[in-house]
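Hi there,

I know you've been waiting on this one. I reran it after we fixed the sequence typo, so this is the corrected version. Both the input and the resulting structure follow.
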Amino acid sequence: MTDSLRFACTGCGKCCTGHHVPLTLDESRRWAHSGGQVVVLIEAFVVDGPGMPADQREHVLRRSYPVPCGASEMRVSVTFAAFNPGRCRNLDDNDLCTIYETRPLVCRIYPVEINPHIPLRPENKDCPPEAWEQGPELIHGQLPVDPQLAALVQASRQADRDDIAAKVAVCQALGMTTSALKGNGFTAYLPEMTAFAAALAHLADGQQGSWSLHVEDDDLTVKLRALGLQLTSEAPTYYAFIGF
């Protein structure tokens, strides 16, 4: 892995196809208002316990929120993302973005990684090889060279921290209160967008009921129940469990 990477977008449109784009709270409001579908992705962990990646402790704590779970407590991380199983709804026939000036923050940052613990690897991106053989220096020592790009990365990380309490409130208002254990999987919801927009517009304070964890691993179930957590392994009706 090199300490320096060059990059120049080729306009292939592949990064805008088949990817659910993480949105800030304000971007989620705009996405819903414009008729887009949002997918909600949830994962949880126990502080200094199951699901907590020790090497990412500070990062995951700052972008998570405590919720009651059974007789105990866990922390949940919630991602609101633009639902794009195919081509992004904002791509035109020439693979150009029709909302380029107001595109989401994550789109502006691509291909740089948001998570400080994930290195940028060209082989993990959809961009063609020539994109990495031209253009200005993108990163040096895993840090963005362009100060404006670096500021956008920091803004995205800060939005994760600032928005998490409101995202949890929306989930609770809509009954999206089953998570998966971080590292074992995540739960995915496709909320009805009128209700989602209404929940965003009328954020409620405080906790609304207990959360649960979807677990299908027998050994993990034993460990989590010993901690007093509320578990379920029933086939989901209103969400999908995506296991690792």
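Quick highlight: DSSP finds six helices and twelve strands in the chain.

Best,
R. S.
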